What we know:
479 residues, 10 helices, two-stranded antiparallel ribbon, 14 strands, single chain
Amino acid sequence: MAAVVVCSVLPAQHTSTASPEITFDAVRLLSAEETYGIPVYEENDGKKHYLVALSGAALWVGTVLFWDRYLIGSSWAKVNWDWIFHFYEHKWEWDYDWYWTNFVLHPAQGAMSYMAGRSANLNRIESFALATLADFTWEYFCEKTLPSKNDLIYSSIGAFPVGEMLYRLSLEAGEIHRALGYLVNPERMWSELLLRQRPRGTVGNIYEMSVGMDMGMAYMHSSFGSATLGETFPMIASPWLSIVYNDPYGHDSNNPYSQFNLDIIVGLGVGSGRGMTKTNENLFHDVRIMSDGMLISRARQDDTTDTTFGLVLEYDFIWNNMWQLSSLASGLAVKQRVRQEKSDMEWQVHLTGIVLGTTDWARMYRNFCYDEGMEREYSYTVGAETVLRWKWRHTSGHTLAVDVHGYFMYDFAGQKQSFTDTGWECIALGTVSYELPLSLRVRLGVRDEIYIKKTFYPNIDNVFQIANFPSVYAKLQLK
């Protein structure tokens, strides 16, 4: 449903102490739709529309296939009837596609099928099944390559957190303008076209939302046996978006992903010219998607504390010149906020098992053995992940925060590189930040990030890496 934003500003004598508030007027909303000829959708009937869901997923799969086959001309998309009729002969494998394709585009593609189900009133289990069905269809009938085990995991299990977060955020965005809702969830265009109904769900659940810009530099040191490599990236700009959906503390719910955190970072900069790739060696990139959502939670509250305990699902993706890492993990989480007279202290502990993850390979050994039969730049892993968070916030806006992610990953057998080995990789990614408030909405901060990695392989030389990323940032607290 499209929305009209009505800004209600208090009289002039009060504006010195109160900021403008944004409200939504349903009466003006309807009149505006009628004025501009936009159809007024009915309330959601709550019924499950399976054909709408299936057709929405099929439309998306067909669109992607048409793009890859006819507009891009990808050879792997040129399937024929012989390949289709003999689908049962195709054996599953761990593929070696581009890192971005496997661990961002595949979850995003699965999320579209998942949101086709959610937009047609299917529940989460049904939408997950639809995403899985769409992925099987893609792997067997839309690619002239063998079906991929990792694609199945990330296009189905990975589609759930991505799809559910985007579906819920599209409801929030749609309250501002219908086009924003379509941008976050394009499947809404199909379901609303056929059903003429608003999507199902609640709004007004954004607990915190901020945008910011980091300006900093980075340095990395790697050692591989007797060889060493140092790289400097003197200037990096990293815009970011941070969303907290519902209050993480004291949250009691059986509704999966009724509470989640989502951080998206896209950084660009200049480097030392000694990167992994043969071209654009002086260009630095840093893309991150860090998220966690509660699957089920129980809360306990008293006069001074709010505590949440439950099951959590993590989806992390990091891709930059210094390292790359992805993780899909589930386990337990404990979150607590201690309220004091003039400040709050918050902490979280997550202990999860990694269903499937990846660590870098080419970045770890670049300039050492890059040309020795490299087929892909990462290794598949399983293992464990832990998250430790601590934050102190004063009522004046001063904030001190610590965030640590620990990954204990096992490179299992079957890696395609001829020079790899099974073994453990232990990774710690820690950040310390401090924020100084300039106004109610604007803050300045300093941040320092440290990345440490140590490998334990029985048959090849081990690697030790350490990277440091200091920065200053400006932050606009939207909510």
